[in-house]
Design a protein that fits this description.
alpha/beta, 6-stranded mixed beta sheet, 3-stranded mixed beta sheet, 9 strands, catalytic activity, Enoyl-CoA_hydra/iso
Length: about 260
Amino acid sequence: MEDGAIAVVELNHPGKYNAMSRAMWRELAEVFRAIQADALNSGRWRCVLLRGADGHFCAGGDIAEYPAFRFDRERLRAFHEDEVWGGLQAVIDCDVPIVAAIEGNCMGAGVEIASACDIRVAAESARFGAPIAKLGFPMAPREAALVAGALGEATAREMLLEAAVLDAAELRQRGFLQAVLPAPELAAHARARAERIAMLSPQAARLNKQTLRALKWPPAQAATAPAAMQLIVEGAYDYADSPEHREGIDAFLTKRRARF
């Protein structure tokens, strides 16, 4: 979607609160790679406004797709390392500033996508969490590192270990959000921020984003450095065929409480 110098990217999955399907992850990567290519060539786009359709940002992953691949280790790994991380990496690598306008549900995949953005503003009614422990599986390593870096480790632990769901006011206080607005004011506020960014130097924005990305991997933080992360990833999907993983997915799809 085009709007002057501002590219509008909308997450849209009708009837599922914009839960991310596998196709949507691939499309997210394609869209942000195209925006990045433009930034390196014509420089038309000065800012990206990322939002969800119909009053929600993103309710997580499309769990209806999960039984088709999640219980096979290699297919599970390909899903997270290629499709999900491919989409998130494209957002992270984008040198054009990204403003996320968040309302309604922002769960799991939604929190991950928001964590990859530069400016996050939300409606007062927005709700945030990653309650995948109820589904019997962990957050993938790269995704967990991204979320912990944006949310803060304490909040990430609360979401992942306690399945906590937090409101926008709480996440504004904890530093994840730059602003919280009444729902009717969110769109205009996010647009105004995008317009302010679009008026500034695109070169300065590009170089600032490159510097901030580089600062996320200092040698002192060896536990999150790329080489160490690769070692973690090697065994990260061994749980694919585990009973708890199967029970969690089945319980969600059959609308019952999981018995672990």
